Amino acid sequence: MKTLEDLLSRRIYLGVTGLSRAGKTVFVTSLLHNLLRADPTTEESPLRGFDPFDEGRLVGAVLRHDANATVPEFPYRKAVDALTGESPQWPEPTRGISRIRADIRFKRAEGLGANAAAQFGMTEATLQLEIVDYPGEWLVDLPMLGQDFDSWSSTMVAQAQRGSRAELAREWLAFVSARAPGADHDEEWAEQAAALYTDYLHACNEARLRYLQPGRFLHPADLKGASVLRFCPLPNLGAKAPPGSLHAAFRGKFQDYQNKVVRAFFRKHFAGLDRQIVLVDTLTALNDGQEAFDDMSEALANILESFRHGKNSLLGWLMGRRISRVLFAATKADHVIRGDRLHLENLTRRMLHVLDEKNTIKTAADIDVASLASVRATRDTRRTDNGREILLGRRPGDIEDTPLEPGAIPLDFPPDWGALNYRYWDFQPLPDPGWRHGGFPTLRMPEIMNFLIGEDLR
Ligand SMILES: Nc1nc2c(ncn2[C@@H]2O[C@H](COP(=O)(O)OP(=O)(O)OP(=O)(O)O)[C@@H](O)[C@H]2O)c(=O)[nH]1
Ligand SMILES: [Mg+2]
Question: Buried b vs exposed e over 403-433: b needs ≥16 C-beta within 10 Å?
Answer without folding.
Answer: ebebbbbbeebebeeeebebebbebbbbeee
